[in-house]
Design brief:
about 300 residues; binds 2-oxoglutaric acid; alpha+beta; Jelly Rolls; about 20% strand
């Protein structure tokens, strides 16, 4: 098992796009401004605080765990009521602080080199608080395109003949705390994005998992995608990837989101939000206030 060492700061956007196309992913080291990472962490701290108050008001907890840091507070808050644990935060993410991440100009410049000028934020953006040793937060080996192909997230009646493996997409993933092997970073199998959509089977918690026959011969090539806050990895929606177990004592907070060629259907009920457009510039999400006025749709 090797660990990624790709450092991309010296490469231009075309070089980065080439690396993405060759390997199925590219790591952008320290690409996101510290203030944006801090803003996201603050918004999530507010969300945890709200949950803490709710559980005290309901009489479930008798303390707010207010002195606990971001890295551990949610663990304490749900320790007596694991069924109140939230594995994915999604519809809430229309906080102004998320704009700088999802509509980040430096990230969009690389995405534009891959997808062209019409770019949509795909209606699949999520913050994952991966709690220590909680099986429900481990994501088995899968390709995102397999979920789309299965109609797992609904469908678009106007998608016509478009197939999931024809979607032109770029996935993004960035940690809000250091994400390493010990606390459940992702693993990728480089170049697996060239294999088409391989068979998956249904697993617990509504996950799909690549079948052992398709996975076993390639597992020896898996690499840990170890990242720090401020780093972002862009990867193909056809990439074989896994979210490993968190064996540390603190939460592995991370955010994943996706961009798509906006001339295509999302193949979902939701239409997403325009991030860049030369065809329809007025429809682009303008700023943090605009983002906060919109919803998961
Ligand atoms: O965050 C993780 O551990 C897994 C994320 C994932 O599978 C994804 O972003 O598609």
């Amino acid at each position: 098992m090797t660990t990624t060492t790709t450092v991309s700061t010296a490469l231009n956007n075309q070089d980065l796009a080439k690396q993405f196309n060759d390997q199925g992913y590219v790591i952008l080291k320290q690409w996101i401004d510290t203030k944006i990472v801090e803003g996201t962490r603050n918004a999530l701290s507010g969300w945890v605080d709200q949950l803490a108050h709710q559980l005290v008001n309901e009489g479930v907890n008798d303390t707010l765990y207010a002195d606990e840091p971001f890295e551990t507070r949610l663990v304490r808050v749900v320790s007596g009521c694991p069924h109140r644990m939230v594995r994915e935060i999604r519809k809430e993410l229309h906080w102004p602080q998320m704009f700088g991440l999802f509509f980040n100009a430096k990230i969009l410049d690389v995405v534009e080199a891959l997808l062209g000028p019409e770019i949509r934020l795909y209606p699949n953006y999520t913050v994952r608080p991966k709690l220590p040793e909680m099986a429900i937060t481990q994501v088995p080996w899968h390709q995102d395109a397999a979920f789309t192909a299965s109609g797992h997230h609904g469908s678009d009646p106007n998608a016509g003949d478009l197939k999931a493996d024809q979607l032109r997409m770029v996935n993004a993933w960035s940690p809000l705390v250091p994400a390493y092997k010990i606390n459940g970073c992702m693993q990728f199998i480089p170049k697996s994005h060239k294999l088409g959509i391989v068979p998956h089977e249904k697993k617990a918690f509504e996950y799909l998992e690549i079948t052992p026959e398709a996975l076993a011969p390639r597992l020896k090539d898996a690499i840990n995608i170890e990242l720090d806050p401020g780093d972002v990895v862009l990867f193909s929606n056809m990439m074989f990837h896994v979210g490993q177990p968190n064996l540390a004592k603190s939460i592995r907070w991370s955010c994943d989101w996706r961009y798509q060629d906006a001339t295509q259907s999302t193949m979902r009920t939701e239409k997403g939000h325009l991030a860049r457009s030369t065809r329809d510039p007025k429809a682009v999400v303008r700023n943090a206030t605009h983002w906060a006025s919109l919803s998961f749709a």
